[in-house]
Amino acid sequence: MRTPFLAGNWKMNLDRRAALDLVAALRERFADRDDVDAAVCPPFVYLAEVVRALDGSPIRVGAQNCCDEESGAFTGEVSAAMLKDIGCDLVILGHSERRHVYGETDELVNRKVHRALATGLDVILCVGETLEEREAGRTEAVVRAQLQGGLEGVDGAAMERVTIAYEPVWAIGTGKVATPEQAGEVHAYLRGLLTGRFSESIAAGVRIQYGGSVKPDNVRELMAVADVDGALVGGAALTPDNFLPILEFDR
Q1: Quick check: is 100 catalytic?
Q2: Orientation of helix 139-150 relative to helix 180-197, angle to 10°
Q3: Are the C-beta atoms of 124 and 93 separated by less than 8 Å?
Q4: For residue 121, how many other CB atoms are within 10 A of its CB?
Q5: Which end of the chain is more exposed for a tag (fewer CB within 10 A), N or C?
Q6: What is the residue range of 177's domain?
Q7: Tens of pLDDT along 53-63?
Q8: C-alpha to C-alpha distance for 105 and 88, rounded to whole angstroms
């Protein structure tokens, strides 16, 4: 059975004080959970302090991106090794905002996946279609290309360190949410792709999160879907009042 995995992607939000207050509240309430995995993914500048604040806690700390290069003259970039060095243990890659705002291709995302895994970071690999692509009936083609492109050259043994996040672009920050049926269809399709790419047993072990306007009032319904194994949460992960009920969806 796959352990639910819920992660908060803070994006470019919060200041230092709000960040530390948030993780202090999460740490206090989440100290005794061993049946749900949780993570927070702050902006780069707060990562080291959040890692220290959560030391000894079951809550994991991840970054929102990393460079595909190991080191060198790459102004403004942050390497996977730097993230590992300060205590991060996972990284979000291929988020729709990186793809659509900053033009990241499947090939670049794939290089980042390999760099992160080689450095010892776990990966949350995001896939998802735009509204235009969904309305054109291209959802499966889009997520297939992103999944296969992002995992090119990744072997089955490494997949225990990879989580897939299905985030329909049309539902991110819009208040729109894929229905449980829509989410379930795409999650089941993704697991089928993983079965074909690796094996049934490997695919059965990969957790697939849903992301896109996840809130306290819809998380339970989404998590009840067979192939939904967690959530990648944006705006609702920025306050304890919203994120804690999401982490405690099953209580």
Answers
A1: no
A2: 40
A3: yes
A4: 22
A5: N
A6: 5-247
A7: 999 999 999 99
A8: 24
Q: What is the pLDDT of residues 36-50, one digit of tens each?
A: 999 999 999 999 999
Write out the two tokens for 175.
Answer: 């208040």
> What CATH number did the domain enclosing 228 receive?
3.20.20.70
- Name the domain count of the chain: 1
To the question of pTM greater than 0.90 for the whole model, the response is yes
Looking only at the bridges linking them, the beta strands covering 230-233 and 5-9 are parallel
State how far the Cα of 63 lies from the Cα of 85, in Å rounded to an integer: 12
Q: Which of 104, 167, 181, 187 is catalytic?
A: 167
CA–CA separation, 150 and 46 (whole Å): 27
What percent of the chain has pLDDT above 70? 100
Question: Is 97 part of the annotated catalytic residue set?
Answer: no
- Residues 146, 148, 151, 153, CA torsion sign: negative
Q: What residue type is assigned to position 129 of the chain?
A: E
Nearest to 86 by CA among 45, 141, 118, 117: 45
- In the chain, the amino acid numbered 181 is E
